[in-house]
Design brief:
139 residues, alpha+beta, 3-stranded antiparallel sheet, 2 helices, 32% helix
Length: 139
């Protein structure tokens, strides 16, 4: 079956099998913290590691950032969901500690977001958070 673009009328692009090879400076890193920074062009993911040696002042040591185009983000979310579903099917639900849950989205908007676009954005954030929380209790 030919490969079809999502948009109607767009030409199909044949995909060749990809060969993966690593640069000489390739590095594998571990992260337990990610910060997100978005623009109209892409999404920047900044990875770090929580350092709790000083219990009074824990710090996240950031070590890597990667920018992804929005199409890559969308495909990546699909692939992450696939991997998560298969992992949980094989190993059971992943538990998230209470302190690790994303914070609730406030009902009262900060003044700079109290406009139609801001209210819509906060409604979307509340909906997505509620969907995420619901997945934690599903069988």
């Amino acid at each position: 079956m030919p490969n079809k673009d999502v948009k109607a009328g767009a030409p199909a692009v044949a995909q060749q099998p990809l060969i993966f090879q690593r640069d000489d400076d390739f590095v594998a890193r571990y992260a337990n913290n990610i910060q997100f920074e978005s623009s109209g062009w892409d999404l920047k993911l900044t990875f770090g590691l929580l350092d709790q040696r000083n219990a009074a002042k824990p710090v996240v040591e950031q070590h890597t950032s990667i920018n992804l185009s929005w199409p890559e983000v969308k495909i990546g979310m699909y692939l992450l969901q696939l991997h998560m579903a298969l992992h949980e099917k094989a190993n059971g639900k992943i538990r998230i500690p209470e302190g690790g849950l994303p914070p609730e989205i406030p009902e009262t908007l900060p003044p700079e977001f109290d406009n139609p676009q801001g209210r819509e954005a906060f409604d979307i954030m509340r909906k997505i958070r509620a969907q995420f929380i619901a997945t934690l209790s599903e069988p």
